[in-house]
Amino acid sequence: MRGFLVLRVVAKLLMPFMLVFALYVQFHGDFSPGGGFQAGVIIAATIIFYALIFGLPAARKLMPEPLVETMVALGVLIYAGVGVAGLLLGGNYLDYFVLAHSPVHGQERGIFWVEVGVAVTVSGVMTKIFYMFAGRKRSAEEE
Amino acid sequence: MIEELIVIVLLALMAVLTLGIALQRNMYAVVVLSGAYSFLMATALVALDAVDVAMTEASVGAGISTVLLLGALYLCGGEEAKPLTRPWLPLVLALVISGALVYGTLGLPAFSDPMAPINTHVVPRYLHDALKETGVPNVVTAVLASYRGYDTLGETTVVFTAGAGVIALLRRIRRRKDGEQKS
Fold it and tell me: Does some domain include residue A143?
């Protein structure tokens, strides 16, 4: 798709808005529809969009494979880490009340980090699956 | 009334799409039709006030999975082979099962019935106390991340496992290919 000037220009114009929308969905998820899962999918969709227009190598430069693979595991670790932090601070596993000086603030902090973990894992997995599918050649071309 | 009408029109369109998907032999058309199906589903969910689910359906069902399916079709070709035998037995089986499912829905409480068991158990507590207890006005987020935090941890682990599974399956093939090229 390297020759399509309109697509490339429009893609470059759209991508910042998609990313900002993903951040909005992520961090405004407490007040409006959305949350970590949806934001993660939108981030992955942005990268896939970029890969479709500019090619897979360019997307791999933007989001290198080691980073994506780290994100796959990191999100779950963040989520589980919030639970362990609750344990260390004297609560039950995934008990957010102890994470800050007041229970409500603790809840807000816990939900924030949990959602971050979900977004990181989901965007990593979606991007990685796309890389895996798109990185393969047809069986006829291999021979 | 108007909401009911919208939902009925959407469901009718989805039924038409399902028939189209079943009859269509070209897989590219099937993928595009199922993307349209997901968008209709998302719209129906918006009409039912389930905006969070609608957002997920639109982004995952219509967006990412359409792209992934098209990528898979690019690898394996887009025409469905004609079945060798007439699939009467699966058809009868599917009809019987769907009949049983429809019969099962007759026993469900009416939609958004306030006296239904699901609306009398913990839901009132979530709706009344979620803001006070968690400071999060969006009850869906509060339930998802706080009250049902364990479930969401499980879901995240499922997503992680899916990613790890795809990596394990596809990477092995690529390595073997590299080995073949070297030899």
Answer: no
- Beta bridge mates, B79: B26
ipTM of the complex: 0.87
Residue A79 lies in a domain: yes
- Our CA-based measurement puts residue B53 at a distance from the nearest CA of chain A, in whole angstroms, of 9
Confidence of residue A141 (pLDDT cuts 50, 70, 90): low
Contact B153 A133 (CB under 8 A): no
pLDDT (tens digit, 0 to 9) for every residue of chain B, 183 residues total? 788 899 899 999 999 999 999 888 888 999 999 999 999 999 999 988 888 899 999 999 888 999 989 888 888 877 777 777 788 898 899 999 999 999 999 988 887 778 888 788 888 888 888 888 888 888 888 888 888 888 999 999 999 999 999 988 887 655 555 555 544
- Cα dist. A80→A40, B1, B2, B81 in Å? 18, 46, 45, 46
B146 in Cβ contact with B129 (< 8 Å): no
B174/A34 Cβ within 8 A: no
If DSSP codes are grouped into helix, strand and coil, which group holds residue B70? helix
Total domains, chain A: 1
Residue B24 exposed, middle or buried by CB count within 10 Å (0-12, 13-18, 19+) = middle
Percent of chain B with pLDDT over 90: 35
Residues forming beta bridges with residue B26, ordered by sequence position:
B79
Closest chain B residue to A93 measured between Cα atoms?
B150
B141-169 confidence digits (pLDDT tens): 888 888 888 899 999 999 999 999 998 88
CB contact under 8 A, B134 and A108: yes
The residue whose two tokens read 């260390």 is A88
For B172, the closest chain A residue by CA position comes to A132
CB of B142 within 8 A of CB of A96? no
The whole domain housing A127 covers 5-138
Which residues of chain B does A103 touch, with a Cβ-Cβ cutoff of 8 Å?
Answer: 133
